[in-house]
Specification:
The protein has 340 residues and is α+β, with helices and mostly antiparallel strands. It has eight helices and twelve strands. Helix 1 runs antiparallel to helix 2. The longest helix is centred in the N-terminal third of the chain and has 29 residues.
Amino acid sequence: MRWFFLFLPFFLFSCESENESYGDGFDFDDAMSNLNNFVKNWNVNQLKEANEELASAEPGSLAAKDAVKKVARFERRIALGDYFSFKTPADLPSSLQWKNGLDEPEDSDPAAKKGGAFRYFVSSFPPTLRPFGPSSNSGMRGELYDDVQLGLVALNRLNSSVVPATAKEWAHGPNKRTWYFRLHEDAAYSDDVEVKARDFALSACLRMSDYGDSPFYKQYLREEIAQITIYDEHTLSVSFPEAKSELGMYNTIGEFAPSPPHFYKEFGVGYEERYNWKHQPNTGPYYVREGDIDKGVSITLTRNKNWWGNDKKFYRYRYNPDKIVWRVIRDVTKGFELFR
């Protein structure tokens, strides 16, 4: 799956370090506090329902066993505390065994030719360039974001092992319900702004906010993630309601990408219209330049020659074209004719 995160502990923490504003305009601190309360209340209600189901179930029945599991699930979630929390590196478990995946085989061809333009066609022009919100899944979300950006971790295309992406290392706690991530210190967005751990949290905040109008994300993040913790600018953890294998972790949140706070400083009322034709800076090598959107006709992505992943294993032989041109051609036969 392609997914997401945030913060706050037992007393209200700010989303900013000293003398540094985390975004302008939209009050992310307030939004995160509200979302903490939203998830807390949902957990409490789910636990109440689970206890009622257990009380009404026949002792020893399958329904009773399911209710016991549900009660334990939500008791664990409530015991964790706030959905979004801040801690320090000193709070990291000392027994973590970090992996980096660099012993896996290179899954791209060193002989691949670099440069030039890749041209292809789509049957209709996207209704929006937003990565989330109304109509965002009905256009070119994959071509503009999912297929050309890096999430936390990725899958090796030769053997389906987990390999680094924006995170350079990962580890799990003893029960495998909490997974920890260390980001590449040089990871940056396509506008060269540094990626920070809290930006993953911001992605969850935006998608769970009512302004984002993304009911699927709001439900998914609430149900599939129990807690997100930020330890420093490059370290975070994600806790799940149940234990996850490494592949299970990837399938749940591996491809989730961060959101740049400077880009979303005007997030709030009117988000849908205000951001409809803006291409969000992302962690991948391609971006859409101003002037490269010809509405109804084509969209061109340009490669960032100074991309932070240029020399990293698993990515140094990928993303080779200088440009990717998507042209609207509604007739498939005509589309192939034009490439002759």
